[in-house]
C-alpha cells in the first residue's frame, strides 16, 4: 500500500533523535489514531535551520513523513520552512494512501509547532505562522461517498 | 524476500492441497447444478449430502441441520437478523458481548435501528463474560443469546457449555460464532446446548467463500437470502459445489487431526509466549493464559504502534497482524482490547500471532529474535519512551 | 452412459479450464487475506483490483462500482432489500415483472411483508414487458425499477435501453438482473442507464459461489451482509480470492469471444428451433423469435409432461431442463410460462435447451432425433393424446 | 432421485395401452401437478382381473406407479385388487421421494375408479369401495417442518 519512497524512509528514517537545547521543539498528536510526533529544531542567527531531529510514535506513514519533513526543512530559512506543506511532503514521498493523509499533516504541524516555540522563545513574530493546535486532524468524515 | 513465516492463521489459512485435490473435479468435469434432474448433475446432490454428513458428524448434529452459506459473515448475519424476524412475536431483545466480531456487532447495530434492543455484555481482563451478568441480562422479551465460541483477536474461549445451560434453562435460543473455534477445538451442539453455530471454511484450511450455519431442528428461522429452493428452501443460490466439497474435506481433516494439532500448536504457542514475556520488556499477554485457542498468542508492547511493527516484521518475511484483518484500514484501536480494559495507546501496540500446522520451533525462534530488535528500534524512535 | 450432451448452460456452465488455471495458485500458495497489511497478502488486493477492472471494463463501468458477492441470488437480494431500506424516505414502491427469477420475486415478497408495495408488470406472449405499462405504473413513491435483462427460462431479452430511459426520465433507480445476460450479450451501464446490475460467475464459465453487484457511484445503498470493512465497507466477509480471480478471468474470456460465440450459438439455436418446430407435431417455441439469448431454445410439446421427457433424454445422455433448476422439486408449472399465457397443462410440457461454446451441429442432430422418438413414445402413453 | 425399480418401470412400462370394451375404466387426476392417469380393466365372471392397461400423462413416478399397479392387480380378484394400496405400490418400487408420494395415490385411486365403474355397470356393490374423487391429492402442506 505504500510507495517505495515511503518504505525507504520508514525503513531508514533520516534524522531520528533529539537535539539538546534546541531552538524550538514542537509536539503534536492525533487523538483519533493516537499517534504523536515531536520535532526538534536548531536554528542559527540567520534564521536558517541548521539541524532537525524527530521522534515519532505512529504508523509507517507517520515515520516516513517525519523523516521526509526533516530532510525538506534542513538548511532552509524559517520562512522557507513554513512553506513545506503536508502536500509537499506527500509529493516528495510519491504519495500516500487516502487514509494516511492525516499522518502527513502531523509532519507539517509539528514543524510549525517547533517554529512557534522558537518564535516565542525569541520574542519574534513569524509572518503566516499561527499558534499550532495540539490535536491535528483533517475534517475527515467517515468515508461515505458512494 | 525468500523467507515466509505465516503466523496469521486467524485471518485466513492455506487451503490444504488435499482439499484442493478433492475440489478440482467439480470445476470443469462434474460441474452440474445439483438441483438439476439428470444424473450427471444429480450426482452432485449426493456429493453435497456427503459433505453435510461429514460436518454434521463433527458437531454431533444431524445432516439436515447444516446449511451452506458463503462464509462466517453471512452465517452471522443470517442467525441474528432472521431470528429477530422470526421470533418478533416472542420479543425484541438480544444479548451478545462487546468482543464479538463485527459481523455480529454490525448486524446488531442494524437490528437496533429496527426496533431490536441489544445488551452487550462486558468481559473481564481476560475477555471472559460473567455468567451471572448474562443471567441477569435476560428479560422476558429475550429471544437470542449470541456469544462467540472463541475470540478472533485474543483467542479467549468463552464458557460455552455454561452459557448453553443458561439459555436452555430460560428457553432462549443460543447462537455461537464459532468461526475461530470450529475445526480447532471440540464442539458438540447437544452437550453444549447450541441452537445455531456459524463457521467459515477458510479458517480451518478449507477454501474461502464458503461457510455454514448449523440450525437446530425446530428453530424456525427463515431465509436470509431469498430465491430458489436450495438448502431446504432456506438459502437460495446455486450451490457452490467445489466450495462445499472443499469445506467438507477440510472439516474431515481438521477433525481427524485435531487432538494432535492442538497439542503441537499449544506447546509452540506457550513457548512463544514465554520467550516474548521474558525477553521483551513492557510486554503483556492479552487473553486468557489457558482458556485460549491452541494457536493464538496476542501481545501488547508499550510505546509501540502496531502498524510500524507489522511492516518491519513483514520486511523480515513474517506475516502477523494487529487487530483483525477486516478492520485494517481503520484507525480505531481494537474494540476487543478496549473491552478488556487496555488504554487507547497500549491497545495500539498489539500483535497477534496465530500458528498453523506447519509452524516450527525454528519459526518461533526466528520471530522472537527479530521481534526483540524491532520493538527496540521502534521504541528508540518513540517520543513516549525513555529508557 | 458414455455420451454426454450438456444443453443446460442456463442452469450452470462448466468452469473453463483456463479459468481454473488462473484460480489455482490462490488456494494453497497465494492464500493471504487481501485485507492484511503484509506484502504476501496485500498482493492479493491488487489481484482483486485487476479483476474488478476487467469486469468494470466489460460493462463500461468504473472499477470501484463493482462489488463482489457470493452469486446472483445475493446480488438480487442486496439490490432490492438495501434499496428499499436506503430510499424509504423517498418512497415505498417498487416495480418489477411477473417473470423475474425467484431471487427477485421472493425478495419482493419479503419486502411486501415489510411495508413495500410492489407492482408486477405483465408480459406479452413473447415475454416482453410493455413500456407504456411500465411508465403508467410509476408513482411519486416509486424508488426502484427492477427488470431482468434476459429471462432464464425462455431467453427473452427485455428492452433494457428503453427501460433505462424511462427510469432516468422519472429519476428512479434501475436495477437489472443480468445473471443470464452478462457475458453473453453486450451490456453498457451508461448507454443503458443501468444503476445496479446483478451477475453470477457460474453462468459464464466462471466458478460457482461468486458473483457481483454493479452499483453506480452515487447510489446510496448500504450493506446487506454487515461486518468487516471489505468491499469499501459495503459487503462484509473475507474475500473469496480464488472465486474473484476465476470470475475475472471468465469475464475477460467471455468478453473477448462474445461476438463469435453469439454468432455460433445463435446459428445452432436457430437450426435446432427450425428442426424441432418442423419435425415434432404440436410443438411451439416459447420466448421471442429474435429478441432472445443466443444460446436459449425453449419449447412446449402438447400432451407431454416435462419430467418424463427429461428422464428419457437423460437416458440418452442429454442434459436438459424444464423450468429452472432451482425450482425443480416443485410441482408448480413455471411462473414464466403461465405469465406468457400458456395454460397449465401445456406449461407442464416445456423443454429448455441452452447451448454452450462446445455445442456442435452433431449434438443438435442427435438431440432432435432422440427427442422426436421420446415425444412420440410419451404421447402414446398419454390419455390426453389421440392421433 | 428414483430407485432402480422406478427407473425400470419408467423406461419399460408394463401394460401401456387401452382395452376395447373394458369391464371398467377409471380416470383420475391431480389438479395441482396437472397429471392424469387412466386405468382399463378386463374382469371375468369370477371377478378376476384378466387384463389391465393404463395411460398416464405424468411424471416418472406416475408412469412407474401406474405400471407397477397394473402388475400388482393383474390376476387378482376384485376384492384382492382393492387391497393394493399406494403404499404397496411404493414398496414394490423400493420407495419414492417424499414429493412423489402423491403420484402413487393416483395409481391406487385410478384402480379404484375403474373398479367403481365396473361395479356401477354391473350393478354390484363391492365392499369397502368408495366413490372415487376425480382430483386426488394428499393433504400436503408446503413442507415447513424445520
Ligand atoms: C435470472 C437469474 N437470476 C438470478 C439467478 C441466481 O443466481 P445464483 O443461483 O448464481 O445465485 C439465476 C440463476 O440461478 C438466474 O437465472
Ligand atoms: C469470529 C469471527 N466471526 C466471523 C468472521 C467472518 O468470517 P468471514 O470473513 O469468513 O465471513 C471471522 C473472520 O473474519 C471471525 O474471526
Ligand atoms: S495513522 Fe496516525 S499518524 Fe498515521
Ligand atoms: S408429479 Fe404429478 S403425478 Fe407425479
Automatic annotation (TrEMBL), chains A, D:
InterPro entries: NIF_FeS_clus_asmbl_NifU-like, NIF_FeS_clus_asmbl_NifU_N
Protein name, entry field: Fe-S cluster assembly scaffold protein NifU
Domain NIF system FeS cluster assembly NifU N-terminal, first and last residues per copy: 1-122
Gene3D superfamilies reported for this sequence: 3.90.1010.10
